[in-house]
What we know:
The protein is an alpha/beta fold and 204 residues long. It is built from 4 helices and 10 strands; from the N terminus they run E-H-E-E-E-E-H-E-H-E-E-H-E-E. Helix 2 (109-122) packs parallel to helix 3 (139-146).
Amino acid sequence: MARRADWRGADVERVVYCTARINGADNPDGQRDQGVYLNALRESGSVDHIEFGYYVSRVKYAPLAVRDRAGRPILTRPGWPVQVCDSTSTPLPNARFMVSYAYREEKGSDVNVASHLLLDVLTKVVDAAVVISNDSDLRFPVEQARQRVPVGLVNPSANYLAGALRGQASDGVGRHWWYQLTASDLAKCQLPATVGPYTRPAGW
């Protein structure tokens, strides 16, 4: 699997950023800070288009668990000092603790990434594409894009590249590459503290 390919002479034609607006009712500070950031992106010319998904909020239920060394869930069982007993005060060692929790999920962004990628490739407005994501749901559109143009895949997370996004540099038309962002990459690519009338929020 190639980490880089020879794309010398390539120009960035269009940058599409897919995200979702934070709900101000749940997180007013986050919504305000995000608004500053999105406006600064537009003001600086860092993006050509922002495509918005949305967040959904709901209450979910799940058994209480802790992580093992690999990050997999281990269900928490009763035990003193917190025990579960039946009506005769007999301990129930196989009982489960159930919790309800606020669940917020970003919706639509993966579909928007896939749609813009395939539209740009199939209408031939780009000769190559760079996708910044580690979302395994993008497997099919990325595979299809690789059949038609070279694709660079940038993993923005600290996790391993999703298996569904792996491939070979020679797949399809070839000249594909993969890269994982580092803290140094992010530090070098920050916007200035002030962009036009917009100032970086405190704590960012």
